[in-house]
Amino acid sequence: MEELSVEEQKLIELAKKATDNSYSPYSHFRVGAALRLDDGTEIIGANQENAAFPVTLCAERTAIFAAQAQYPEHAVMQLAIAARNEDGFMPMPTAPCGSCRQVILEVENRYKQPIRLYLYGADVVYVVDSIKDILPLNFDSDSM
Length: 144
What we know:
The protein is built from 3 helices and 6 strands, in the order αββαββαββ.
């Protein structure tokens, strides 16, 4: 964490705080996300579970969809993700699931702008410059 800028650390802290907003009565796995738009606006998201698991939404998608609904003219520049269970924050970072990776890819392509990812773990933080770095063989409009 100490190698990151103050703004990057702030975004990670927002993601950690967003875990408080998780509704996860089944898994007890609380995930928070925080993103920053190109105008500096910050938006948080948290995972929302449901007894019918297919209608559950991840923290990353709740934050991205909120940003897209409220500020469609602004590109997402950064996205931080943090996760904790009943024992506390995970020691190693939690990466976005496949559905979230696809959504992040679509947003990168929409704005022609990579999204810098900060994957928080209590022991280490991974910084990824673009979702394409962890989703190299991707499916997008060029695939159709």
